[in-house]
Amino acid sequence: MDYGRSSRPVPTAIKILVAGGFGAGKTTLVGAVSEIRPLQTEESLTAAGVGTDDLTGVERKSTTTVAMDFGRITIGQDVVLYLFGTPGQDRFWFLWDELALGALGAVVLADTRRLADCFPSIDYFERRGTPFVVAVNCFDDASSYTEGEVREALDLDGHVPLLLCDARDRESSKAVLIGLVEHVLALSTAQSPS
């Protein structure tokens, strides 16, 4: 038997976090792009969460992620992204350090109906020095704002890409992930000694 090496290159595996506030669309984005059946740890919202889970702006939300979402997507022939969706509520933040271990970058999903909910995610990645992009999930019932207005509201540094997306749409969500990979590569190239 020949156990020689294959002529096909081994794909590069990249771990990506998908973060943001409660109800921003993290589970939806992971599910929309994953080429495998995504792992989801969704549980029903119950009366016990009344007073804990703020449903303002997302009143129709009936489930929440209690640990993580997981999916996979191949970009081109040589890059495989492993997606880890984080829980959005403060009480699950203890999981974030474990989920972030080894992540090359992150997508912070923002919902303009609840923009302040993505501040903790942005702060987390800034503190850790993890490259990230902010993707505004364009909900049908949300007001539209200019890029400048969103950047100012988030106090977002000019080098952080700000993208628009529809987390339900595979191509839109895939474009966000490609934007993140391009951002990480650009930062890596800029930091490399010449």
Short description:
By secondary structure, the chain is an alpha/beta fold.
Helix content: 25-40%
Pairing-aware structural class of the strands and helices? alpha/beta
Task: Please list the strands of the largest sheet in the order they lie side by side.
Answer: 2-3-4-1-5-6-7
Q: Helix and strand string, N-terminal first?
A: EHEEEHEHEHEH
As residue ranges, the low-confidence spans are none
What's the average pLDDT? 83
State which percent range the strand residues make up: 25-35%
Gyration radius from CA atoms, angstroms: 17 Å
Distance between the termini: 45 Å
How many DSSP helices?
A: 5
Strand runs, count: 7
What is the overall silhouette? Answer: globular
- Largest sheet, if any? 7 strands, mixed
Could you please describe the fold and organization of this structure?
This protein is α/β, with parallel strands linked by helices and 194 residues long. It has helices at 26-33, 96-100, 119-128, 147-154, 170-191; strands at residues 12-20, 39-44, 63-75, 79-85, 105-110, 132-137, 162-165. A hairpin with a 3-residue loop joins strand 3 (63-75) and strand 4. The chain is globular, with a radius of gyration of 17 Å. It starts with 11 loop residues before the first strand and ends with a helix. The mean pLDDT is 83.
